[in-house]
Amino acid sequence: MDAARVTVLEAMQIPFVDGFETLDLSVTFSRLAPSAIIASNDLLALCVIAAVRRQGLSVPGDISVVGFDGIAIGLLTDPVLTTVEMGDATMGAAAASLLLDMAENAVAPRHLQVAHRLRLGGTVRNIRNND
């Protein structure tokens, strides 16, 4: 983001209650006018894409969207979802290890890095072409 001279907005929580039809991002769009949204998981990313389209905007033309976890359904969307892919077993094992260490050894919570990769799809616009 720094290299592209793009201002990073603070993270904000998007309420995700029942399904894609209830996700309303109109206030977010009017207040912040984001150029990209990074969702905490792929299902939320797909719901964000649906909400973007309901606002008459396009992905990635108006707003880029990225998910996180790499569920298979993201490969079936049009365009294919760009996501940070992690193996379910890796994520689960890391979480279980942290929880057990905290519960059994009174270890303070900590951050871990787990194996991951960026799975490129078509939901992110190339900002280098917009200079």
Cα gyration radius (Å): 17 Å
Q: What percent strand?
A: 5-15%
Major sheet details: 4 strands, mixed
CATH topology of the domain at 20-87 and 115-130: Rossmann fold
3D structure, described in words:
It is a single chain. By secondary structure, this protein is of the alpha/beta class. It has a domain at 20-87 and 115-130: Rossmann fold (3-Layer(aba) Sandwich), CATH 3.40.50.2300. The protein has 3 helices and 4 strands; from the N terminus they run αβαββαβ. The longest helix is centred in the last third of the chain and has 18 residues, at 88-105. The radius of gyration is 17 Å and the shape is globular.
Give keywords:
single chain; 131 residues; alpha/beta; Rossmann fold; 3 helices; 4 strands; globular
Overview in brief:
The protein is built from 3 helices and 4 strands.
What's the helix and strand layout?
Elements lengths: L25 H7 L3 E3 L3 H13 L9 E6 L12 E4 L2 H18 L11 E3 L12
